[in-house]
Amino acid sequence: MPLLRPRPARRRARAAACVAAATLVWPSDQAAAVPAAAPALAPGPDAVERMDVDAAVAEALRHNLQLLAQTYEVPLARAEVVTARLRLNPTLSLGADHLDLLGTHYDNVNHAGPQEFFVRTDVMLRGGRKRQRRIEVAETGVVVAEQQLRDAVRRLVRDVQCACVDVQYAAAAVELAAINRELYARVIALNEIRVGTGDLARVDLTRAQIAELQARNELRQAQGAQKIAANNLALLLGRTRPAAAIFVTGEMRADAAAYSLTDIRAQALRQRPDLQAARSELRFTEFDVRRQIAEGKVDFSLGVEARRQQGLAGTGNSLGFFFVVPLRLFDRNQGQIERARQQAGQAEQRALAVEQSIRIEAENAHVDYEVARDLLRSFEGGMLAKAEQVLATAEYAYERGEAGLIELIDAQRAFNETRLTYNEARASFAKSLYVIDAVTARESPQ
């Protein structure tokens, strides 16, 4: 498109256009440093709620519904320990036999009877140390439940931190889109003056209006994405209804310390609660095998009975002792023993799978960290400044009528894309740091 040159006959019109152009405040400096404390959500019926990442994590640990449900696993496992420690109750039997309730009438002719009354108690003695085996299994189950709870906390902290970064990134995108729309609105105002004075073709005004419409749509999309990000964060926080407006204060995390793959992997294998839970579950299944073998051992009962007889020849009291042993000829708990052994093998493979998954997870986290760090350094090293310079040059030329609208739109689009990519790099780097914390279980309680 040819550059717009002022015509001598239109000097007054150009002067009026320059006055209008002087009112344009171009958004280069504003877009280069999006303020972290200004809420970017569109006004709504509810006030904007501000919180930092630490406050969001603390609220999620108190109110997240899935975590609250997970916390019940520990007292449930402890209840199993109480059950395992209980001993079997003795049995008490009361009986009456040979009672003359049918009118036979015991006498010297029929010599029926005598009537008998007895009290008997039985105690079962369990073989194979069953109680001790059950306690071992139950106590190991408590350890597994506690470690699984720690892992749930680790994953929740990671999800909340990454959700906070998403909210911050969405706020920056809305801020940039709003500045972009305001820019094109001012360009339209300037072009309307130029078209009215005949210093600009109407097609350029139409192009500016189309660009402003696109910027308005981008702003609406960015606001929708920000609302979705706020809702996702609210869900993790345990809110009972979607959040109208949540703004995460503070800058995105950008640690300067370097992280090596060796350290990340070593810390993860040493501290990860899911790996510890998998190994404890393996011990749980091994104890369960021992318990099922013990369940196949013979149990026997000891009983004592006091009996009273009342007959024609007189009355008498007697005492009896009993020893009961089941003959386990067929059912020796073979099925449950085999099931427990298969579960032990399965738990061993799961532990190996978790360990291998952690190794790959650590490597992936380190790769994401290095890529995001290098990309962010490339922007901070001059790419963003060059895009700002190109935009500033295009702005100046357009104000003077020495450049067309297409050049300005291209420069603004290039700057927007560069700034958006820069914001994505900041968000990716912040997330990579939080992911490294999660991979190494740094946020998990000890």
From TrEMBL:
Residues 330-357 form a coiled coil. Pfam families: OEP (PF02321). Keywords: Coiled coil, Signal. The keyword Signal applies. Residues 1-31 form the signal peptide. Belongs to the outer membrane factor (OMF) (TC 1.B.17) family. This is TolC family protein. It comes from Nannocystis radixulma.
